[in-house]
């Protein structure tokens, strides 16, 4: 079996997760190279994961390796430039969320990939998380009848890395970071139905000293098919990661909880090494998570893309889906600024999605 | 990469699980052949799973294929004979629980494997189930201090296949089928500490019309290190599979629940295809399980054995461990018969472990 | 001890709950009389609960009994008229939610009670439900730091009684029936802070054949103190009653679940008499609730009012609070109609709150 | 209404619980007097609870007050002497668990109460705990078919008060303190069926420096009707009180959890006042209990006894039941000493039940 050659851009938290997924679960891929802006960080990452090459220059990586797939795990503001470079170099691309900072970037990324005839997959792992996917299956089997409402929440106490808090680099706060998951999952559950309108409220409750971005948000999305969806996203919730969905149908309901709802329950007087993502402590009661990477669906997601590349298939989640999510985030920011529903399609020109909220607040 | 060649003996429920594990998670192995006593069943299994060869004769399978590993998933009474054949043919062996029906068989199996210089792994998947393994890790990190009590329970409403209920074929009832998991896991958690004595009580509460075997049992095991362990096993518990452990230490406690504690919670008026193993129905509230095979640890277990074969390492769980478990089951049956603790070592001569209970009951 | 004399208006579901509360937990009160529009229903209720007198005429009840307290449990459209009659007769009044159908009614009720110097308590039992009150206490102790978000959900599959579905009698759908609980509880948690604005979305998903009212609603309330609150209310959720709250603070979080989160978990092949309110079935898995009346806070609430009457104290929840809740419901209906936040104070003239939604929809 | 006059013996933890029960929920009783061995403690208790009289001499209390009911909440070794005094004084008696230290005491207590024609109620609150009672009801309705196994566990990290750890005063360790609950509840669930035999294992794992008594125990009770019961009791389990039961029937199963299973779930960075009984901390995740006294059934239990006194009825749980529980505890200690089942009836002569274990261990 020849292996599909992958290079990873980025050497942070999410890159670790991708590498674990490839190395444990996707034998048909091999990681040839890693890029980080800091060469020391690139080298350390390569050594830790036994990756043969490392770079601090994407052009050099593209020129000097024969990778077929570029897996983009860099900060938001570097998504477009690297996607475009990789596409022009003829590489297939899988890219972490959100697709881009602006819709213009998104459009250019999609167009460039098309022009260069390379695949572009938008890596929304909730579309592959096994508990959620199992829920989606039983919905398709009719378990809850016709769906009329979906909820999805993702909450923790805030990222560790600085760039998330810099709205120039991230384009916004928790909505850009985590709200995109809910938006992507709603569309996935509804067969990419069309969004009618979006309402949002948001605020900065915990990290005001560190960011101008929102760290708590509620978004209501109404789809043309009549389904109402509610997203809750927060960087202000203590006690560890929370990732839940609720599916309401005319014949039943499903509750799925990825973290607390799959963990062992531990009481430790002295504490121990690690309970779960963003848990402040492991002393006292804690929810001890296991096989986090697998249970969030990263291996399933990446395996799917490698299969698409090897068998020349279209990914289930594409750049267009990523763009649709970004449009919903634009609408959410604008809605929070204006205090009313924003109808889609919606394509104002802004440098950062969050300006649609911040600028309205200043008025 | 050359693949390690595996043949599977058995074409039932557990064989399906092993095949899913190999095919999805263990690319370094390939399944060459399957054996079933009924050739039609063997052929159907082979076709379903794209296995190139099928047999209703183990000798023929051993002679005609160049497999390196025999994975034994046949009923208990066929464990010894097939292990011995495979060992004499120079094959490495991984065998489902329980290791054998009698201690004499177990001794012969172990000796034959040694004599033929082949590996013998006792496939106790609870030693690999990721939630339980995560719990074991945090115990090792000191999360609960010194352990003083362990509990493990496995319960459902009874197997589907007939031979489980025939004590001539199975050697006993739920203890042989499921009690072995608890015994194996206790030893695993305690670093294969020595058992001091075993007490058990058991009865036939639900399936008396179908079996002379026990379908409900409580076993207390006291280890020489002072740790007390309690196993609960049942074929008489409705509402789906239950597999839980509790770990009590002087500095804390861990509760881990493999099935209900990892599932989505669904209410379905009409019901749907499948909720979890042995759930009677999926209508009303149900606990919707996902990635069952992975979360029970089968891929981790089989991957470990394939690695042992490829890298010539000793399995973490061996035939000797399987024998030690069987000795505990002997002691449990004798204890239930005599109403008192049975000290180990314990090696009475019987044809079937359950006779130690049944014969005492008749007195 | 002389007992405080109470008459109950209404002989339905909620009247049973009040009577159980008085008779088991409030010995300082005695129920003298019951009124129902149907004399047979009144008599049956009186006999069932050993109440000495029954009436189908409120004026007669007021004239012929020497009750001091009128406990109003009749349908919404009869709230104002009976409150005003009782107040004019010099009776203290405790009234079930919502306070009234219109703000004009509410104003008249409050004014009449004041003019006649009688107490008017708005019976919001969530302000007394012991689990929620315990949560409120620990919040006051600083358990979660400064609160920034509250959520409250109440959902089941729809009332049994017809008048709830008739918007002429109820004034609206699930918001009037259950949304008022969330609104009342938000204010209670926040010390009756002022509401800045309300946003809502609603739809009729399950009971469209039976009502023009909404049976599913999401309401976002923003308070002047910066706290964001989210209410979810539904008559379209199967599997029994759901009543939950979530309290988010800058130093922690509390999740409280009144029904599923306090029940025993039962699997019954054959089913049994009653699992919990609005559970469709007790076969299969069910959440078996206990001491429902107590755990929802009815005895605590009624005991408080009897104490107010006996000791001449002001109730903790008054007619003004009920009016404030109703104003929030008005704003929610208007918001759902207009697709934007509605700022408070808000007092449009309508016959039924739901017209603010229905009329906007027709435009 | 004349009130039934009650005097309480004891001024500790459980006396507080009884007083809260009487004062909030049993208006037909009034507490006239309290006794404690230390007069300062008696006075402080009386002042705290507005009890008119306090004593440090039981004889004086019996002579000087006209109470009709003596509620005995003193340490185990004072149960017999005070019961006998109260009975001879013609008082009805309700007594906390265990009934007595020895069977001889129990026999004398029962006989003296009979001779003096006073009622003797054994206060097993689990027979009245509303969640457990609800479970018992649905079992009687047939929810789980014929019961074949019961489990009951009560665990925390050890009492605060010293006498519990002194086997001369308590007669034993956690079995005397908490194991009696399980024994009482098993008999209650099974209509006081006859016990066939008892097996137990026990050890001192956490409090060896403070007590010779067992602080961890497993007891298996087999009833003549074929039902197997398992009790788990511990003073060595951290993280707060655990009180659970499981009911297994041929047609279903019920799980009921009194503490964690009825609480709110709180994450508090800073901690707060009180989470639940014996919780070491309220920082981090905690299970916030509410209405503890009510939900454990104390008001229901005491109300029942007051009703028995007022209406001259026989208590549902009598001195004979308390004696039967004590006999089971004797058998458990003897079994743990001898390593075998002990058949009932069983009445060895010992000063302290625990001697049946300790003396056998010394052999």
TrEMBL record, chains A, B, C, D:
Residues 5-122 form the Gfo/Idh/MocA-like oxidoreductase N-terminal domain. GO terms for molecular function: nucleotide binding; oxidoreductase activity. Residues 132-254 form the GFO/IDH/MocA-like oxidoreductase domain. It comes from the Bacteria. InterPro entries: Gfo/Idh/MocA-like_OxRdtase_N (IPR000683), GFO_IDH_MocA-like_dom (IPR055170), NAD(P)-bd_dom_sf (IPR036291). Keywords: Oxidoreductase. Belongs to the Gfo/Idh/MocA family. This is Gfo/Idh/MocA family oxidoreductase. It comes from Mucilaginibacter terrigena.
